[in-house]
Amino acid sequence: MENFTPVASAAGGMLIGLAAALLWLGLGRIAGISGIVGGILPIRRREAAWRLAFLAGLLAAPLLLGVAAGYSAPAPAIGSADLLAVAGLLVGFGTRLGSGCTSGHGVCGIARLSPRSLVATAVFMVTAAATVFLVRHVIGA
Amino acid sequence: MRALFAAFASGLVFGLGIIVSGMVDPTKVLAFLDVAGDWDPSLAFVMGGAIPVAAAGFMLARRRQRPVCDGRFLEPSKTGIDGRLILGAVLFGAGWGLAGYCPAPALVASVSGQAGTLVFVAAMLAGMVVFDLYQRLLSGSRR
Q: What's the number of CA atoms in the CB half-sphere (13 Å) around residue B100?
């Protein structure tokens, strides 16, 4: 439990909630990252500008911290490029099929008390935990 | 212009939140998901911090006819619970559990340029494009 960081995690979570509130009050748009990214991929002119501006801000966070404080993101948790590619495909396709990820369903949807998002969040949390269990305690052992 | 600035500011605050909260570290994410192992419950506090603040924002918005910088609130159009929602969440959960990355943290971490993160992000973007092609194939028309 030495890595337990409840205060930093709650503070970071509040920033995420603040960002979602800002986007809804300012633009009337949901801060769902998979929707924002997926919505600009086959370039659609409508709705593209604010999405690009949001993504520029998102990427500016680590860039600014990098310049100001030498910040560099932690390394990937797994070494296999093949597994990372499979995981990326699943996350990309799955979040679009299910219309949301941890931010759109997990934060915004639950904050709006959307039954759809509550179900989606429960399903992806349980599936993710089951996947880790399978990889670490059944296959990996 | 004001709307774009607000969107940029929201993205920036969101990105800082991803970093400060620890979501950006896939090892920590996997430790949160590993309930049968050396469980690190920290990331439950991310949702615990994010949801009430976001909910306060959504409640404040109810008093307004329209958002500050736009003509209308764009409510999510889908409300039903269907097979696509469940299957999508299952696929996403499997990928999240394999690598410890969900979309925002992967994008934020990709700025540091580590090969594994870039592989994940490239595959995630490819997965989204594949979904779009699949969608068009199903509907037989452009959206």
A: 26
What does the pLDDT look like over A105-133, one tens digit per residue?
999 999 999 999 999 999 999 999 999 99
Chain B environment of A85 (Cβ under 8 Å): 119-120, 122-123
Tell me the one-letter amino acid at B68: V
All residues of chain A having their beta carbon less than 8 Å from the beta carbon of residue B68 are 25-26
Give CA–CA dist B45/B53, Å, rounded: 13
- What is the secondary structure of A60-103 as a DSSP string? HHHHHHHHHH---PPPPS---HHHHHHHHHHHHHHHHHTT--II
- The verdict on a CB contact (< 8 Å) between A9 and B102 is no
ipTM at complex level: 0.96
Q: Count Cα atoms within 13 angstroms, Cβ side, for A28.
A: 15
pTM metric for this prediction: 0.96
| Nearest neighbour of A73 by CB, restricted to B9, B20, B109 | B109
- Contact between residue B93 and residue A90 where contact means Cβ atoms under 8 Å apart: no
